[in-house]
Predict the 3D structure of the following.
Amino acid sequence: MSKKVNIIVTQPPYGKEEVFGAIPLAATQAAADNEASITFVSGAVHAVVTGQQTGYGDVARWGKNIPPLENEIKNNLELYDFYVLEQDLTKRGIKDSEIIEGIKKTNISELTDRILESEVTLVL
Amino acid sequence: MSKKVNIIVTQPPYGKEEVFGAIPLAATQAAADNEASITFVSGAVHAVVTGQQTGYGDVARWGKNIPPLENEIKNNLELYDFYVLEQDLTKRGIKDSEIIEGIKKTNISELTDRILESEVTLVL
Amino acid sequence: MTNLLLVLTKDPFTTETPELVIDVANEAKNKGADVSLYLIEDGVTAAREHEFGQRIATLQQKGVRVFADDKSVLSRGIYDKLIDGVEIKEIETLLDFIVDDYDRTAWF
Amino acid sequence: MTNLLLVLTKDPFTTETPELVIDVANEAKNKGADVSLYLIEDGVTAAREHEFGQRIATLQQKGVRVFADDKSVLSRGIYDKLIDGVEIKEIETLLDFIVDDYDRTAWF
Amino acid sequence: MTEGKQLTIISIRGPYGDEAPFTLLRLAHAAREKGITVNFFNYLDSTVIGNKDQVPKEYPSVEQLFADVLKKGLKKPKTDAIACIKCTDSRGVTKTQTEGVVIGGLYDLAEWIAESDKTILLG
Amino acid sequence: MTEGKQLTIISIRGPYGDEAPFTLLRLAHAAREKGITVNFFNYLDSTVIGNKDQVPKEYPSVEQLFADVLKKGLKKPKTDAIACIKCTDSRGVTKTQTEGVVIGGLYDLAEWIAESDKTILLG
C-alpha cells in the first residue's frame, strides 16, 4: 500500500550526515508508490542556502569532493516537496533571498498537518 | 612533562557515550603524572544524580548490564576532581540533595579558570 | 480523530528538538488530535520537575497523556522525580502503542 | 597574560554548546586573558548576522578576535554573510594558532 | 491483536556511542513475544550495528544480540535485516556483517515502508 | 617556528556521519607541510576512521586519506596513530585497522599528552 512519507531533518548540513541521508531516502519512495516530502528544521535549515561550494583541498589528493547538498536538493526538487521551517530560518538570520528556489517555507501548523496526514514520519 | 588535563563533558549519560568515555580518560592521566579533572556541563549534568540502576532486561539474554555511571564516578572520586556546572543543574531542576557526594558544584568563572590554567582542555 | 504518539528521546536544552516536540504536541492538540507523549532514552529527563517539566505539565492539562520508559528512568535515577501524572511503562507498551493503538507515531 | 583560543564547531541553537563558549569567552576576557574565537565546521553559522552573531559582535567589541574557516564557510554558502570583522582563514592558520601562537586551545 | 502485524524499524545511530541500538534490541525482543514481524533497515552509522566480532568489555554485545534476534526470526514471526550498501561500503563493513544481515538499498526500504503496518526511525 | 613541535589529536567521531574526521585530515596535511609531529588517538566512534576497505561512493575515502597520512609519516615529521583497544573491540574493528594504526590504550594517550606541546580533541 502506498504511503505518505514525511521526512523531518534536524541536523546541520556538512557537520552531520542526516541531510545527505534524507535526500535519497525521500527520492526512492516513489519506486514503491510512496509519496515523500522533506522538511528542514532546527540546524538543518542551513541546508537551504544557495551558493554552497564544497571541497577540503586539492582533488588530486582528496580523490573527490564532498557532494554539494545544494545540487542534491536541486536534482530532487521536481520529484518531491522540500519545506523549511520559517521560525528556524528567522532564528538563524537566513533571509528569503538566500533560499534555493523551489523550497517552500512552512510553519508548525503545516508541519503538524503533515505529521497527522502522513502514514509515516521519519525524523533524522 | 606532566600536565593539567581539564575534561569537559557536554552530552547526556546513557543516551550518549561521552560520560562513559571521559571517566577512564581522566583516570589514566595519573600514570603519566598528568593531573585530571572532569566537569559536567549541559546534558552531562544528569550524570551526577544518585540512584542510577541500569539494565535493559534479563541478564541471561543480555550477557551483561550497561555499567552504572554512578559507580564509575564513585570509583574515581578519590583519584581526581569531579565538577558539575551549577547553572546547568538549575536549568534542569537537579537538586543539591540528588548529587553524588563528593562531586563539587562549579560556575563559569571557575571553569574558565581551569581552562586558562590547564595545559590541556578536552571537550567531549 | 487522529491518534498521534510523539516519542521523545532527547534531553531538553542540550538540543533544540524537545522544543519542537512541545510545539507539535500543542498544535496537534489544537487541531483536535488525540495526542500522547512517550519519553524514552534521554527524553525522560524532560519530565523532571523543572522549567521544561512545567511545559509538559501544561500539555497534560490540555489532555495530552505522558508516558516514560521504565529502563530509561531507572538508569538516570529519576524514578520518583517526575512531574505528577507521568505513567511509567515497559517497552511492550510502547510497541503496542506504535503497532496498534496509535494511527501515527513520530519518533524524535 | 594567557592567550586563549576557543574553537567552536557547533551550530547555535541546535545544541547548547555555543552558548557555553560565549560565556567562557566573556569570562576569560573579564579575567584579563587575550581571547580569540575560531569558527569551523557548523560553528561558522554562529557568525551570521542574526541574534547569535550579535553576541559574537559584542565579544569583538570587548577585544575578542573572531576567525572563520574558509572551507566551512564556502560549503555553507555564507562567505559574504558574516558579521563585520570576522577574518576568514585557512586550516594552516588554525594549526599555527594551536601549536604556536596560543597558550591554550579549547575545542568545542 | 498486534500478532501478525508488520513493523519496519529504520536506524541511523551506531552501537555504543548512542543508546538507540539498545532500544532497537528491546523493541525486537518485545516484538518477538508479541508475534510481530519486524524489518530492520540499518542506515548511515547504524550499519555498524551488524559488524562482526564485537566483543565489548563492559557493554552487552549489540552484534550478538542482533544476530540472535535475526536467527530466531527465521521462524514465525519473521525478523529480517537489511544494511544499506552505500553506507556499509563507506564504512568498510559490507563484507563483515553478522549472519542474517542482507546488503541492500533504499529501494528495499521503500517497499518495506509500503507493505508494513507501521514504520519508525530511531533517531 | 612550529617545525619540530609535537601535537596530539584525539578524535571521538566516526567517518561520514560527522565532519570531524575530515577536519582531522585537513589538520594532518597542514601539519606535514609545517613539519609538525602528530599523534592521532582514535577513541570511541572514531576508531572506525581506520577501518579497512572503505569505498564511499560520493565522499572522499577517510581510510585511504588517513592511511596515506600515516605512510608519509614514517619519515620526518613523524605521524603515528593509536586506536583505543576497548573501543575497537566493542565495534569489531580491532583486526581490520588500516596499515599504520597501532592498537593501544588510554595509558598511551596519557603519555602522548605529557610529551606533546599541545593536545586537542575534535568533538
In short: Helices of chain E lie at 20-34, 62-72, 85-91, 106-115. The longest strand of chain E covers residues 6-11. The mean pLDDT of chain E is 97.
